[in-house]
Amino acid sequence: MSGASNHKARRLAAALGWASLGLGAAQLAAPRVLGRLGGFEDSAVSRATVRLVGMRELLHAAALLGSRRPASMVWTRVAGDAMDLALLGRALARRAGARRRRVVVVSTAVAGMTAADLYAAMRVEKGGTITPVAPTTGLRASITVNRPRQEVYRFWRDFENLPRFMIHLDSVETGPGGHSRWRARGPARKPVEWEAEIVQDREDELIAWRSLEGATVRNRGSVRFMDAPGGRGTEVRVRIDYDAPVGRLGLAFARLLGEHPDQQVRDDLRRFKQVMETGEVTRSEGSPEGTRAIRQLFQHVAQPMR
Amino acid sequence: MKAICWMGRDKVEVQEVPEPRILNARDAVVRVTSTAICGSDLHLYDGYIPTMKKGDVLGHEFMGEVVEVGPGVSNLRVGDRVVVPFPIACGGCLSCQSGMYSVCENSNPNAGLAEKLMGHAPAGIFGYSHMLGGYPGGQAQYARVPFADVGPIKIENGLPDEKVLFLSDILPTGWMGAEMCDIKPGDVIAIWGAGPVGQFAAVSAFLLGAERVVVIDRFPYRLEIAARTGADTLNYEETDVLDALRDMTAGRGPDACIDAVGMEAHYPVPAMHAYDRAKQATRMETDRPYVLREAIMACRNGGIVSVIGVYGGFVDKFPVGSFMNRSLTMRTGQCHVQRYLKPLLERIRAGDIDPAFVISHRVRLEDAPHAYEMFKHKENECNKVVLQPW
Predict the structure, then answer these.
(1) Cβ of B134 and A232 within 8 Å?
(2) Of B332, B356, B372, at which residue does a domain stop?
(3) Which of B64, B175, B257, B323 would staple B204 via disulfide (CB 3.0–4.6 Å)?
């Protein structure tokens, strides 16, 4: 999508968000007035319904106004519109006379809004602001290590060193011809094993590997080493792609527990830096295994350990 | 062993906890002979530092005798007497190698937590929340000291604990506060906070060549101790600080201002205090920045604001207009203690400074809960409490 039309979609989405905020606030504050305008009878049930719809509007507003990518949130409004039209349709069937006319007017207005929402949502969709479901998960992370590039490369090139800082790896055995056998703990501690080969190896610059046929989780990865400017050591950039084993739902759950793969790679690199710069992984009583995202949510008490 | 544990807001307890053991090759275990309560421990006590857990062992000012060393420590032996700096630093990262020990890149295993709040993570600190590492502190009979080959400084037997204990934090912190002022002949230095750190900052400012030092507080007994260093004093409950400083400098303003108070400052105008206090209580701001505001307003054009008082998160009504338009410079940081240990020990040996003058109370470790209360409410002219664990 061009920058200009992307900008337009964002502005439209934001405007719809503000509309939701205004309408939602009004529905919560004055359900009786709003109900009357819509031709509803003035009952406790209708007031409660108007309030509930108002709360939903506020959720739309929060989604649209609080998101970095408001445009992709427009679909929540479309869903809300469908719900409103259904409610109004039900009311229309039971009203007559002046009140029926009011329901018709409101329904027409809501239908207009629905059209606007749909337009905004489709426009965003077409423009591709929503990222398509990826068949593989791509992870990237980087860190600067205060050691010479040759040393950093050499340490990584010996894959048997990897479990020292990649916490989910149990072991890596290297064989001839750049082949290696990896053992890891997958989600729910299920053991996973696979064979990998080195596909590219440029001394002091780049190592790339990929899993061989038969791996439970197909994966490939690369690590690049560059001199950091001004003698600041070595910049290490890692990229890992793999088939997400438990799908998007599993990924969402893992993210909730702070075990998001992105975070894992970042933590791996932090530990890598610790090993390179201090000789080992730094442990505290609160985080006895060292840097680990999940441990940050469930810290041990900072007391000496038994 | 006995240890002082944080048990929630306004509550510390003496608990029986396991003795520490070596977790990393470069660890040492120290039998603590003296430890102290720091003003910044009160931020924990008052519940303003996030990521504390009930049972966490407190304390980041301690010294003692080495009783065990890991295989990676070659410069210390069992029996050595050491003072331990409060920031934990690896010595191998770029920050450590450029002398910025308190932002060591490897000593905080929970760096991810701190990054969420601060963007990048500072070093781990003993007994100072999980965001800063989750390390048990030194208000205990024993403590594990990570990177023991980098931090601790050996002390010969002639010097008593009380003369060297404060090398662990408050003496170098006060010194760094003054050093950051780039003091030149004729400089007037204003220091907010006449606690032990402010008192040490005053001593340091004179040693670094300040013409005049003005210390600001509201407790007369603390101002008296500060006055003994040769400083002028202002009681902000009796005097308008900005007017007084303008007057004392014939309109120029102090050349540099040191904030030795931090996030829990008090303000003499009840309405203003209530405003920030309410925001802090409802977590709309984490820190009450009166001193920061006043130090900026007071500082001369082109002067330096040196911040050594501890801040935790976010402040409101930061006078950025005054700060920017008047070419001020702000320098800050948790003290890079390791950098100052040797030169300050030299000055203690030479008799330039006797840090023991700040001590008002010496109590047993078991009496720490009472001492925290007394220190918090400034009862019994409490200035600095030293705890004896044995």
Answers:
(1) no
(2) B332
(3) B175
Chain B residue with minimum CA distance to A274: B106
| Pairwise CB contact (< 8 Å): B20 & A304 | yes
Using one digit for the tens of pLDDT, what is the confidence trace for B339-348?
A: 999 999 999 9
CA distance A285 to chain B (A): 6
Q: Which domain covers residue B180, as residue numbers?
A: 174-332
The Cα of B116 is separated from the nearest Cα of chain A by a number of Å equal to: 12
Please judge whether B136 and A282 are an interchain contact, meaning their C-beta atoms are less than 8 angstroms apart: no
Q: Which of B93, B134, B136 sits opposite A299 (nearest CB)?
A: B134
Give yes or no: residues B323 and B181 share one domain: yes
Q: What is the CATH number of the domain that holds B183?
A: 3.40.50.720
Quote the CA–CA distance of A77 and A62 in Å, as a whole number: 11
Per-residue pLDDT reduced to its tens digit, A170-229: 999 999 888 999 988 766 667 778 899 999 999 999 999 998 987 777 788 999 999 999
**Complex prediction ipTM:** 0.92
Q: Which residue has the higher pLDDT, B14 or A18?
A: B14
Give residue A101's pLDDT band: very low, low, confident or very high (50, 70, 90).
confident
Q: Tell which wins on pLDDT, B357 or A248.
A: B357
